[in-house]
Amino acid sequence: MPNTTPNILLIYTGGTIGMVKDFKTGALKAFNFKNLLNNIPELNLLDCNIETVSFEHPIDSSNMNPEYWVQIVEIIESHYKEFDGFVVLHGSDTMSYSASALSFMLENLAKPVIFTGSQLPIGDLRTDAKENLITSIQLASLQEKGKPVIKEVCLYFEYKLYRGNRTTKLNAEHFQAFASFNYPDLAESGVHLKINKEYLFQPNLKRKLKVHKNLDTNIALIKLFPGISQQVIESVFNTNNLKAVILETYGAGNCTTEKWFLDVLKKNILKGIHIINVTQCSGGSVMMGHYETSSELKRIGVISGKDMTSEAALTKLMFLLSLNAEMGKTFKTTYEAPLRGEMS
Ligand code: ASP
Predict the structure, then answer these.
(1) Known catalytic residue: 315?
(2) 7-211 and 219-335 share one CATH topology?
């Protein structure tokens, strides 16, 4: 009989889940991964083989950057054949950025990559870490006819599995720290694990995993606010080597119609800078042209981020800009189309 027990690789990058208090300062800092496993003997009861790999120096996810994302995708790439699923332990602060980035970097992914972490360290009596970790491993182990049920990058936190590139961290204190306002939950953990199969991403299984390791960070994000000055906007657009700017606008993609503002945008689009419109609202979509205050943006060629989160918009931009040479004039059309289920 072939061995059908799923093999799961646990990748520890850092975050509160594996932190301890520094006796001197009282501040939380990352500790050795081996201690993490000693703290959860329950892992031995799960119906899967678990192996672990850890960043040499685990980080607080506030220090996350594209080089670390490449480290994570390289771990997945080099273990892709032997493992049926991957669970990435990660700080919650930038988890949505990392999950979004990996969704673009792992093209044709056909196995689960589940990000999780916790609000309280694993050693804390009231910790949320154990449930998050154990259920993430169970979800990554789910199989049907010997194939993984989940074939995308997800985020699991406080009884819910979300599509990773649809999430945002919305609470620094509650155990329910994440939300996915524009896409339904992929699964819910109660007495039973309820998988919402109709919402799972279905990749083309004929295609082989393609791992992208280049990300272009020559971008900026501007959150508009009433009173934002011309000087501030212009100084961002004057940044050396800048290739694209994401504008976080109001409501359904609206902004001031002051002449100086629209002139700066127009001038920069003519120079070849891509400008993307996403909404500051937690849910809903950009609809340029719906109000007079966004019609001009549409006319001058601003790209619509539709209902993407800022996290997905930023990482999609880094990813697509790195392919820009191959794309030329099709950039706008490519950006406005869903690649990994990140927009509706
Ligand atoms: N500062 C921590 C981090 O993101 C918070 C957490 O793990 O939840 O690494």
Answers:
(1) no
(2) yes
